[in-house]
């Protein structure tokens, strides 16, 4: 069971992002404010759940959350400001969508660049510790996966319906064979001398 809240009395929003390590597509962030008494026996870090289970829990989060927001920062913005700043930008945009202004932000990871005066706590592996961050991780992951599945219909050779833009061997071989699309991140090292395999998706 994850923890329901970090503070005793503040309105908390959990924040997380998905797609930071991808070669193509946006980075997507979510912010979620859950009821303080919210519990779910299966809610966890999105990477620990099956796609089917993520989709099931996503529907409940959308229904049960006090409010939530999801934001996309596309590959062109990523190339312009770098992936770390793009991740902060996505989180800030997701937070701005919240209909309730949080009093504390719970940020997954060890760094954050705020754009307002809302206090925050960075929590390493927070998506496996707090319900609100886990909920944000599921929204960010599922919204991004859905988007990449749509792109895959128009660019099937890159296998995005399976790798969702991560640097698998098949993805990199397709880049070699077919070149780049308008959705690839040109600031990333797309074709290193040795193919690196990632298993984050």
TrEMBL record:
Keywords: Cytoplasm, Endonuclease, Hydrolase, Manganese, Metal-binding, Nuclease. Gene3D superfamilies: Ribonuclease H-like superfamily/Ribonuclease H. GO terms for cellular component: cytoplasm; ribonuclease H2 complex. A divalent metal cation binds at residues 16-17, 108. It is found in: Cytoplasm. Its EC number is 3.1.26.4. Its cofactor is Mg(2+); Mn(2+). The keyword Manganese applies. The keyword Heme does not apply. It is an enzyme of class 3 (hydrolase). PROSITE patterns: RNASE_H_2. SUPFAM superfamilies: Ribonuclease H-like. It catalyses: Endonucleolytic cleavage to 5'-phosphomonoester. It comes from the Bacteria. Pfam families: RNase_HII. One of its GO terms (molecular function) is RNA-DNA hybrid ribonuclease activity. Endonuclease that specifically degrades the RNA of RNA-DNA hybrids. HAMAP family: RNase_HII_B (MF_00052_B). Belongs to the RNase HII family. This is Ribonuclease HII. The gene is rnhB.
């Amino acid at each position: 069971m994850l923890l329901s809240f970090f503070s005793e009395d503040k309105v908390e929003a959990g924040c997380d992002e998905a797609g930071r390590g991808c070669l193509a597509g946006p980075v997507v962030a979510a912010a979620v404010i859950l009821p303080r008494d919210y519990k779910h026996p299966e809610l966890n870090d999105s990477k620990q759940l099956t796609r089917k289970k993520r989709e099931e829990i996503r529907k409940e989060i959308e229904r049960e959350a006090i409010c939530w927001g999801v934001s996309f920062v596309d590959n062109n913005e990523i190339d312009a400001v770098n992936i770390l700043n793009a991740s902060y930008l996505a989180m800030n945009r997701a937070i701005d969508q919240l209909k309730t202004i949080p009093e504390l932000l719970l940020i997954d990871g060890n760094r954050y660049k705020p754009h307002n005066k809302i206090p925050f706590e960075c929590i390493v592996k927070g998506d496996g510790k707090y319900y609100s961050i886990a909920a944000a991780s599921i929204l960010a992951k599922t919204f991004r996966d859905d988007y990449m599945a749509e792109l895959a219909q128009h660019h099937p050779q890159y296998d995005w319906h399976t790798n969702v833009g991560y640097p698998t061997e098949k993805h990199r071989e397709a880049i070699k064979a077919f070149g780049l699309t308008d959705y690839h991140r040109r600031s990333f090292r797309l074709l290193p001398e040795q193919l690196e395999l990632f298993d984050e998706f």
